[in-house]
Amino acid sequence: MNHPLSNSQRRDAEALLHPYANAVALRANGVQMIERGEGIRVYDETGKSYIEGLSGLWCAGLGFHNAELVETAREQMAKLPYYHLFTGKSHETAVELAEKIKELAPGRIARVFYQSSGSEANETQIKMAWYYNNALGRREKKKIISRVKAYHGTTIVSASLTGLPYNHLDFDLPVERIRHTSTPHFWKGAEPGETEAEFTARIVRDFEEMILAEGPDTVAAFIAEPIMGAGGVIVPPEGYFSAMAEVARKYDILMISDEVICGFGRTGQWFGAQTLGYDATSYSMAKQLTGSYLPLSAVGINEDMAEVIEKHTGEIGTFGHGYTYGGHPVGCAVGIKTLEIYHRIDAPGRVRALAPRFAAHLDRLAGHPLVGEARHTGLVGALELAPGKSPKGFATPGKLGPRLAQELLERGVIVRPIVDSIAFCPPMVITEEEIDELFAPVEAALDATEAWAKAEGHLG
Known about the structure:
Layout: H1 7-15, H2 23-29, E1 34-38, E2 41-44, E3 49-52, H3 55-58, H4 67-79, H5 92-104, E4 109-115, H6 118-135, E5 143-147, H7 156-161, E6 178-181, H8 186-189, H9 196-214, E7 219-224, H10 240-250, E8 254-258, H11 272-276, E9 282-285, E10 297-302, H12 303-316, H13 329-345, H14 347-365, E11 371-377, E12 380-385, H15 400-410, E13 413-414, E14 416-418, E15 421-424, H16 432-439, H17 442-456
Parallel strand pairs: 3-13, 5-6, 5-7, 7-8, 8-9
Antiparallel strand pairs: 1-2, 2-3, 4-10, 9-10, 11-12, 12-15, 14-15
Helix pairs in contact: 4-13, 5-13, 6-12, 9-10, 13-14, 14-16, 15-17
C-alpha cells in the first residue's frame, strides 16, 4: 500500500483486529478497502476494479451483485426478520431449505441442522459424533482423525481439526482427542520411485495403522474435505477416498465430508464427495449455500445417525446444542433462492463446461520455470511455485507466493497465496472470456516474481 494512509484505512486500523493478519504490518501499510461488487469483480475505494479470483473466501459462487438474492432478503426481512428453532419453534423457510438440501445431498440424508459458519458446522459435526457414540454406550469412541494441511475452521475443536500450524500457534491447540493423518498430495509427498497407486496405498495404510495404534474402539470419525482448500488446493489421487472410506467402514468410524468449499457445484457435481467418489455419514455445508450473501451453514446427517440421536434426546431429555442464528429466516430464504438459481443455471453442468478452459490455463502456466505443479478440479485450482520445479520447495517458504499475489493484485486480480501456492476459485458465473481475463496477467506476474526472487537470492 502507498503512504500516507487514507482516512478510511486509518479508521480501520483504529477500529478492527483483522483475522489472519499481522496487525503491526497492517497498521503500517494499511488495508485494501473494498467498496462495491458487480459480477465477478469488486472495486476498491479509489474505484479500481479487480477480478475476484477466489470468490472472496472461496464462497461468492454467484458473484457480487445478484439482484434476486438482494430482493429475496428484503422480502423476508419485511415478513419475518428473525426467529429461532429452539424448544419446539420453527418457520417455513428453515423447513423448505432443509428439504431442498436433502434432495441434493448424496446418500440417505435424513435431518439438517443449521449454524452460521463452516467452523460452527464442523464443531457441530464433532459434538454430534460424541453424542451419537454416547447414545450407543460407546463412551471411549471419541477420537477424531483429520489430516495434515486440512482446514476445517477456527473455533476450538474445528481449529484443532485444521492441520495448519498457524491455526494452533499460541492458541494452545490442538485439543485432546484430535489426530492428523497423511496429506494426499502425490507430487509433494511421494517417495522416490513411488507410483501414484503405491503412494495412495501407503497413506491409506498410514490411516489404518493410526486407527489400530489408537484403538478402533476409541476412534469416532474421520473428517475430510473432498479437495483441500486452505491447505493448498490439494486434489487427492484416484481411488484415495474409496479406500479411506472402506477403512472407516471396517472399524465403524463415521465419515464426515466437509463440503464448505466443494459443495453446490464447485467441483462439477452438487457435492465434492460425488466428484471424488465416496459416500459420507454426514456433510458440512456453508459458503455457497447462500452464495455467501448471508451467513448460514448446515450439517446433514444420515438416517442411522438421526435415529440414534433423536431417540437419545427422549432418553436424556434434550439435544443441548444450538445457535441463536442457526436457521435464521433471512439466511434460509436466501439459501432457497440461491439453490433455485443454481438449478436454473445448472451450476454443476456450467462448471463442467468451463473446467477445461480453466484447466488449460493452469496447465499452460505449469510450464513456467517458476511453477512446480498445477492442480485443479472443476473451478478450483492452484499453481505451486518451486525452485527448479522441485517438490522440496524453497529454503525459506512463504516468500514467493505472497509476492506473486501482490504482483497480480497490481494487475487487477485478487487471488489467495497459500505459502508458495496461489489458489484460484472464481465465481461460478464466470464466462469463458472472463476466465481468459483472469489468467491474462499471470504469466507477466510470474516473470516479475521470478526476477524479484533472483534479485533477493531465493533462486540460488
